[in-house]
Amino acid sequence: MNTEHFSAGTTGHPVDVTRVAEQQWHALADDLVVGRGDVSVRPDGRTFLSIDAWHRPVFDRIAEAVLADLPTPLHTVVDETDHDLLAGWQQAGFTVRRREWEYVVPTDPQLTGLGQGQPPSGVTIVPAGEAEEGPLRELDGALRAEVEATVGWQAMPAEILPRPHGTTVLYPSKYAVAVEDGRYVGLVRVAPLTRQPRIGLIAVRAGHHRRGIARALLAEVLGALHRSGTATASAEVNESNQAATALFEGIGARRTGSNLELVRH
Questions:
Q1: Same domain, 23 and 118
Q2: Residues ≥6 apart with Cβ < 8 Å to 137
Q3: Within this chain, do residues 162 and 254 fall inside the same structural domain, yes or no?
Q4: What residues does 238 pair with on adjacent strands?
Q5: What InterPro entries does the record point to (predicted)?
Q6: Pairwise CA distance, residues 143 & 206, whole Å
C-alpha cells in the first residue's frame, strides 16, 4: 500500500484524474500517466486504497478524485517511517487505526531456544505439506468463527492475501498443524517468499491456549527453515496482541519497523 517518497518537484502540467476501471484511477499530465489509484476489497469487507505517485500534488489530486467516488470507511497501510506519505494520507482525512510491528525472526534453535522444546503432552505437530486438507479447512473455519465472536476480523492484520470468494485456505501445503485426540487444534502458515519466508498466521483454538502449542508450531516451522539453510523469517504482530508480542520476542525476534493502518470514516 506504500509508494515511494514524494519528490520535491511537480509535473509542470495540469493534472487530470480519470476513473479508468471499477477499481482504478489514472492521473494524466500532458497525456502521460503520472499517478495511479487502486482499491481492493478484502475478504473481511474492508476496502483498501493505494496511491502510486511521485509528486505530492498528484497524490492529492488522485486522493480527492477517489474519495469523491467511493463511500467510507476506506483504509490504507503506510510504513510509519514514511513521514511524507503519512502526512499526505492524514491531509486527506485518514487517521491511525492500528499499528503492526515488523519482526525478523531467527531460525537457529540455538538462538530461539526452541531446540529442546517438545509439544505438550498428547499434542502432535504435523509438518507443513503433510496436513489433510479437509481437517485443515475445518480448523480454519473454527478459528475464524472464534475471532469473529470475540475481537472480530477487523482486528486481524491488514495484509490479507486475495482469494476467491468463500475460500480461506489457499495453499494447504504452507500450513503446519497441531493435532490432539485426532482433531486439528492449531496452525501456522509460512509463505516461502523469495527474499525472506514470512510467518503469515499462527493461531490456536481458544480451549487450547496457554499450553505451549503456538511455541511448538513455531519450533517446527523455524527448525525446518533452519535445516534448509534459511537464517531468518519475518512476521507482523499487532501491537495490542501482547501474547504474540511476548511469544516472538521471547524467541529472539528483533523488531525492525512498523506499519500503520489508516482509516477514513
A1: no
A2: 168, 169, 172
A3: yes
A4: 100
A5: Acyl_CoA_acyltransferase, GNAT_dom
A6: 8
Q: Which residues contact 68 (CB under 8 A, 6 or more apart)?
A: none
Indicate the DSSP class of residue 123.
Answer: E
HSE-up (13 A, CA, CB side) for residue 173: 1
| pTM, rounded to two decimals | 0.81
Supply the Cα-derived Rg of the chain in whole angstroms: 21
- Asked if residue 75 and residue 123 are part of one domain, the reply reads no
Residue range(s) defining the domain that contains residue 108: 102-258
| Alpha carbons 110 and 137: distance in angstroms, whole number | 33
Task: Retrieve residue 198's grid coordinates.
Answer: 514470512
33's grid cell: 500517466
**How confident is the model over 43-77, as pLDDT tens digits?**
778 899 999 998 999 999 999 999 999 999 999 99
Indicate the angle between helix axes 213-227 and 242-250, nearest 10 degrees.
Answer: 40
CB count in 10 Å sphere of residue 259: 21
Q: Residue 219, exposed/middle/buried by CB under 10 A (0-12, 13-18, 19+)?
A: buried
Identity of residue 193 = L
| Whether 89 and 107 share a structural domain | no
Amino acid (one-letter) located at 206: A
Tens digit of pLDDT for each residue in 231-257? 999 999 999 889 899 999 999 999 999
The span from the CA of 152 to the CA of 206, in Å, is: 14
**C-alpha distance from residue 131 to each of 44, 87, 138 (Å):** 25, 45, 12
Q: What share of the chain is helix, strand, coil (3-state, %, to 5)?
A: 30, 35, 35
